[in-house]
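Entry 14. Ran structure prediction on the chain below.
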Amino acid sequence: MGLFTLCCYNRAMKNRFITRNPLIYLFMMGLFSLPVSAELVADLYETVVPVSDQGAGERLRAMRIGLGKVLVKVTGDSQVLSNINTTEDFSNAERYVTEYGYISYQNPGLTQSSSSPSIGMSLSFDEASINRLLRQNQLQIWPSDRPGLLVWLVIDDPVNGKSFVSSETMPKSVEALKVLMGDRGAPLISPLLDLQDRQTLSPESAWNFNSAALAAATKRYNTESWLALRFYRSSTGQWRGARLLNLNGDDNLRSIEADSLSGLMRKVVPEVIDSLASRYAYIPKSVNEELLVQIENINDYKTFNQVTTYLASLEVVHRLTVDYVDADRVGLRLFVEGEVPLLLDALGRDQRMTAMVDISTPMPAPEITAPPSGVASSEVTVPSSEINELSPETHAPLIRAPSSIKSYRFRWGGQ
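Output, structure tokens:
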């Protein structure tokens, strides 16, 4: 019997509702630790590769290309293939594939040479094998809890002047942008371009990269990152423009040009997403850092399951175990394979998690009673009762756990 079983036993002894409901009691007694498996961007390990036929040679070629696309998507690094010894892995790319099939496929932005649709090979890759490959080569991982990127597009047309681009005005261009972002596993936020947007941000202001106006218009979309892209077609037929990328308040301006509008998009998206991913990606550590996190407002098993499932879905959390259960408080030990600030940043972006930092009185140590008969005392780990006063930090440690384990306290407000 593990630690969480003991904690559930302790709480059940204090909560007659649980003891009168055998199903809930057995559910809680059956949980010991929770492995990480869930992901928030659902198609990170899936891709589509155009093929000319369904022959064996073309199938193997598509699998090799698909493996490369998935590695770029999972790492967030468009240059990842230059940082890995691909000879052996790509010559046997089929061993990473769990499922494949053929679909009708048209590459956005490219003119089709035939009236019949092209063929695409839909591929699904094994998540565990891909992640093992990344760890073996010490490559970065961009967690699937990915912030959305709001994109403002403005075109200067010789006839109509400057105007916003939308799926109504230029559907092929917007669709091409969606596909390029999707290939990188980057959530795209398209502005509504309604009356509120247009009152806050005019096409002229967006064209001039008015940072204050862009930031004000972006505020309603609850995102930390936005991209403003302006483009026009020169008299020679060349597409030219510039883009302003804002990541957490930091601006980065760059000019671009290409032979076509789709080519311009293909230049912008890779380097923009590389910059975005670098803010949130991490290289897995060989030794996990241990944290103690207390979550309050956990009043039933459904809420407990929501919290633990959410935390387990974060890639930076290698695994978690339950340390104690006391009243509406649950203590969790998180074993983190990336940088702790990345975890705290992810928790801060989730509106259901509120950091408890403004506490006037210290929290008493959770009550751990004697284990039931038959449980060896060596299986019981009692958290330290030594408590520190809160420091005025955004994520202030609350309890000083044994050794140098960092501790944090949050309140859950999800439904």
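The longest helix spans residues 56-75. Will compare against last week's run tomorrow.
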